[in-house]
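Record 1 of the preview.
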Amino acid sequence: RNNDSTPLNLTGSPRVQITGANAAEFVLVTPPPATVPAQSTVTFQVEFAPAAAGTRTATLTIPNSNVALPN
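->
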């Protein structure tokens, strides 16, 4: 959700970055648009296909134009 009064630009390439120990088991199926309008939400879809039983982890990072926001 972009709670700001100005649009939020997603600046990464890809827009959603997947890293971590089991990152290969997570796939960005539907990426978000490049801009999140002010006071709006957007969606994206990540698919998970575990290669083994047990805990599987990855980190999703969404670089953006607002330096005050964590990725």
